[in-house]
Design a protein that fits this description.
OB fold (Dihydrolipoamide Acetyltransferase, E2P), Rossmann fold, Ribonucleotide Reductase Protein R1, domain 1, 3 domains, five-stranded mixed sheet, globular, binds guanosine-5'-triphosphate, binds magnesium ion, binds zinc ion
Length: 302
Amino acid sequence: MLSGTGGIYTVHTAAGETHEASMRGRLKQDGNAKLAVGDRVTVERDESETAWAITEIHARFSKLARRSPSGARGERIVAANIDQVVVVFAVAKPEPHVRMLDRFLVIAEGNEIAARIVLNKCELVDAAVVDALAVPYEAAGYVVHRTSVKQRLGLDALHDAVAGRSSAFTGPSGVGKSSLLNALYPQLTLRIGEISESVNKGRHTTVGAVFIPLTDPSGGYVVDTPGLREVGLWGMPPENLDNCFPEFRPFLGSCKFQDCSHVHEPTCSVRTAVESGAITAARYESYLKLHGDLPDPNNTWD
Ligand SMILES: Nc1nc2c(ncn2[C@@H]2O[C@H](COP(=O)(O)OP(=O)(O)OP(=O)(O)O)[C@@H](O)[C@H]2O)c(=O)[nH]1
Ligand SMILES: [Mg+2]
Ligand SMILES: [Zn+2]
């Protein structure tokens, strides 16, 4: 399922055709709420033989979910059946916020989906500034792509990384997600935002996630998602957060306390690793901030 609004869904078939389909009656009650872009579905001609109906939603191998915005209960599924999340930030215009980058990464890790990072608009600042941003993430084990759509830098490597896979492009508004996809696949004509230079604030140009089949010989899909101003971690238990920082993993389990939060406990291997430089201070600070923000698990309403 590529996209859908108002109960009409665009479905891409194995034969390469696209159909507009609605949900078959018995699936309707709960199906409309559950269907996400990327879902694999079965379609059949409906009773009238003129339209298509979705008759079955298949199990997902992955889902990218985040917490529903402001107060609403439950999770919002951004996309289903994703192989990797491509977290896009601009090195300038808009200014990158590493705390927010860390939240995007934690969401991917929490959903057990591989993540890579794109730092776009690299032509706007010195290479040293880009490196300063990139190095902590490379140290954490992430691939960091340095790109410029404007100067067509780094696009070949990014193309190789998305060909043949299903990739969700996420990140704040105005960083160039749609621009990158258009540059990688010139047949795409995704809408690009015109950032007002004076305000320097991205208006949300992309509305609603769209699954896009790639014309690469190796196939694959990309998902262009609307930029997020704020990313809420869905109801993640605080004790799972440490595992969402891949560079913490070698140290987990060797703290003095088995349920160590790595915040204040004595003889904590994570904090020792921060002191020795094996974990960067910036990433540890993000961990502390996120840990403090996560709701108390005893508050069952959240
Ligand atoms: N200087 C510079 N500007 C870029 C680059 N890539 C994209 N832009 C500009 O950044 C602005 C936003 O680009 P979009 O592709 O619409 O950004 P987006 O991330 O898709 O934004 P949303 O759809 O709102 O989430 C546009 O004015 C682009 O022309 C780049 O490499 N360098
Ligand atoms: Mg966009
Ligand atoms: Zn610890």
